[in-house]
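Give me the fold.
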Amino acid sequence: MVEKITPRSQDYSRWYTDVVQQAQLADYAPVRGCMVIKPYGYALWENVKDGLDRRFKATGHENAYFPLLIPMSFLQKEAQHVEGFSPELAVVTHGGGKELEEPLVVRPTSETIIGHMYAQWIQSYRDLPLLINQWANVVRWELRTRLFLRTMEFLWQEGHTAHATAEEAQEETLRMLDVYADFAESDAAVPVIKGRKSETEKFAGAVASYSIEAMMGDMRALQAGTSHNLGQNFSRAFDIRYLDANNVLQYCWTTSWGMSTRMVGCIIMVHGDDQGLILPPRLAPVQVVIVPIAKTEEERSAVLDACEAVSRTLADAGVRVKLDARDEYSPGWKFNEWELRGVPLRIEIGPRDVAREQVVAARRDRPGKEGKSFLPMAGLANAISDLLVQIQRDLFARALAFREAHTSEPTDYEAFSAAVESGFARAWWCGSIACEDRVKEDTKATTRNIPFDQPGGTGRCIVCGAPASETAVFARAY
């Protein structure tokens, strides 16, 4: 299987698709632009989902579900929203063999239908804040698709909240961006840059949008999660109002935020290598695989007994462990398969290891002798847990070092143009759309975000030389 993976240096795009398919994460569906998520890929998504869901509930959010089909008139109520999504809409015009009186949109996002329901549910300030999240699928009619990164139908979560004041809505918007950043860095081992999107890059219908941006293995950017302050745009469009403590009718302030299955693509591209996936232990469907090594039937019986005992010990300690006792494959074949599938740690047990009451532990992120160690069976659960924590930390540190090595701060436009061809360029920007458009036309790079972490002071716009008060991150992106 590994032989079927195109080297990253030869064709990064092909490498990515090869890994997704050969590692059995997903496959192409018979409908153009759609994918079938296979069990291993879905298990990875479930771990992403669990990590986020736990954080959402810890911050007071509850899960609900809203319909897949939305009346077309709902999208037309918010002008910027419908304009932004019109090219991507899938529209149902017939149902039950008859033409519908009003076309129905297959949801590209749910602000409109949720706004309609919030208008019915919210009457008083006592009903606020309303903090709801939904796990769902959405459809956007994309022209250029790629497994996990950009498909016509994809899975995601979308949070939608309503608040009594603008300050509360802004606080919520930034709180959820922090939740995304914590998940990306702590669970996915992906370093991200938090910041505000430019006016041209913000969500259709938002007052302000914020994102976390990550660098992939080919130095391109990926928008890994977004959080939007919608102001009162949707509450005015859908009449979401409440009576305040003074019995005065007020419009709510709303937010929305989302992260999708493209996070799976992000994990693949940040950590993977020419042998396949490298999964962070916190999200890996299988954290440890045990491979028995025996030549004779007599050896096999003793080795399997030891493997089963180790498997039980690790499972009891909460480790996601798999014993690969298949007879039809050689140990070497199994090594290659589990390396391809990104299992963080492999345990090898042979007759000598049984006799010495030890195991051989091989780290996926450090191939060869460098990643191998001998661990005593006594106290093995603690040693393995500590090793998984160290792998998690090392993956993040490696990804951060890679991003820093490919991020520059050019001081003139020529250097800037060269910089965005091979990484992130952080530069002063005056904020004008004209300069943003020129960068896109000249280099195919876009403003990823305006980082919260600013150098202070002022500078000169990298494009036009006008005074600038903020720096932005520019990069080519997925």
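The chain has a mean pLDDT of 96.
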